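Q: Entry one of two.
A:
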Amino acid sequence: MSRDPPFWTVPQLWPGEVVYIIGGGPSVLSQDLERLRGQRVIVINSSVHVVPWADFLFFGDWRWWNEPDNRIAVANFKGHVVTTTKMRTDPKVKVCKKTRPPGLAIERDSLMQLWTSLTAATNLAAHLVGRVGAIIWLGADGKITPERTHHHKPHRWPHKPGAYDKHLKDLITIVPSLWQMGVAAFNASPGTAWVNLLPLIKLEDVLEGRLAA
């Protein structure tokens, strides 16, 4: 009888460091991502097409994996590829156990995800940096603009009304978890709708050593 391989255990590769998570929000278009070269970077889903030199790629949706352009991006990606879905066959992709909200998973082989990959990517970052580390969100807008839904090419499946309300419901539960894990977290997404979720900060302040709530 065949067995699934064990879930991947996330190592603490970057103890006490700062890691940047690049989501899909349109606000990314207003930021100079080239300034992040040499930093610790996690990209979510199709942000890999914009920042192919990131350290980690997280995707949590098998629909994303099934897109040919995304498969090519994964094949060419030099960093680590992580998911919580078993619906893939590429040995390059590391699979963590999916947990449900509320809160981040403490177990290092697990990532919390329900309605948004941002929770799982944040969980991954928290495992990587450990206590006194810091996480900076980019493209965590919590809204769409009249012009576009993402900073990258739109997904083929449509954006569902009310989706960001579901995202926020999950994200609210991770704030106490971050505090308990000793990880600071900030949102550097200009114009974000999630103004009361994490402390807001400018990307240039982080990069120039002015990290503060």
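Q: Entry two of two.
A:
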Amino acid sequence: MLERLPPGVPALDPLEFARYWRARDHLQWSVRPGAKPREVVLQVASQEAIRGITFEFAGQITRLSGGAKLLEDRRRIVLGPLEPGKKEQIELTLR
């Protein structure tokens, strides 16, 4: 199974795996309309440190600002590491 992980996906020991899923389950997030048409604002807060959280959108993303990486399919973003108690705001424009 470990040999079949996609490039860039790290293997986690069971404790790291459990911590990731606990933090993911407690993640607080919302999406609201932005100032312009087709803009949305994603707000994320975590109670625990976590990295690698991915969000998928129905439309293609044409513009992205904030601490996230746009993936090749232009529909998914991966957030940078989130620190406990800090809020992250990502602004996107969708096609």
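A: Comment on entry two: Strands lie at 28-33, 39-45, 54-56, 61-65, 68-70, 76-79, 87-94. The mean pLDDT is 92.
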